[in-house]
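Hi team, as promised in this morning's meeting, here are the two structures we talked about. I've kept the exact order from the run log so nobody has to guess. The first one is mostly here for context; it's the second one we should focus on when we meet again. Sequence first, then the predicted structure tokens.
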Amino acid sequence: MMKVALYLAAGFEEIEALTTVDVLRRAEIEVDLVALGGNLQVAGAHNIKVIADTLIEEISHEGYDMMVLPGGMPGTLNLDSSEILKKQIIGFDLESKYIGAICAAPLVIGKMGFLEDRQATCYPGVESHLFGAAYRDDLDVIVDGNFITSRGPGTAMAFALKLVELLKGEKTSKNLAANLLV
């Protein structure tokens, strides 16, 4: 069974995180909600509190097929300040595992240099942090190598369905989209 780690830092964008985990689980993909900050309960940008499955200190890239970083503020800045997360990003990339980031979260992988010479998108105003990337605002979701980027809350469903496609195939993604009336 495919397994995804979705990271929650205080101030995460709820639509992006919860839409993604919901869609992935509907596709029968196992998802662990991973909390940063030492507490399993994490409050989103709009004060919706979510109970994570595990703490970031308790996992590694091993055993996962993909990591997902939802955006939001200050959630993205909290992701960006985590050295543990950055080590895990490096681990995922070294094994060519998928790394998804939506909204402002591409800033984290962009500042680390992972988007250099790749096409990427993000929330408007964050593109200056996608160091060396070919920024595009004409696509809601972009896959370039093992990196998947998306624009923001309104593109969360397209982002989640693309993740399903990458992990379980186009047919599964299209069937799920039809069932969800997308």
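And here is the second protein, the one for discussion:
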Amino acid sequence: MEIVNAIGRRKASIARIYVKEGKGNITVNKKTLEEYFTVPELKYQILRPFSVVEAENKYDINVNLKGGGIKGQAEALRLAISRALVKINPDDKGALKKEGFLTRDARVVERKKPGQPKARKKFQFSKR
């Protein structure tokens, strides 16, 4: 198997991954997955696509992450992994799509408008 690459985005985060056959090592910005993502819930979320298609410890992944916060980066990485798994085996697409792992979450922060303190909040109205 050759190296398969995929990209995932969420909010301001971009995850570029390179997948090859191996023992299940995941390197994120030259750190291990456990060093980079210390929150157990995020690690679980990232590894879910592998458990859905029963491919745990089958592939080595090298990840370049940039932008956004830790949660957005984790969700961008999950999308990239799911897309790479579909490139490797197109038969897995149905299972991943059913779990919602192939849908790009397009929600981003609304911009702040002029004359307002935030995007939707208004300054207190004074009649007199």
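Starting points for discussion:
Helices lie at 33-36, 40-52, 70-88, 93-99.
The first strand starts at residue 4 and ends at 10.
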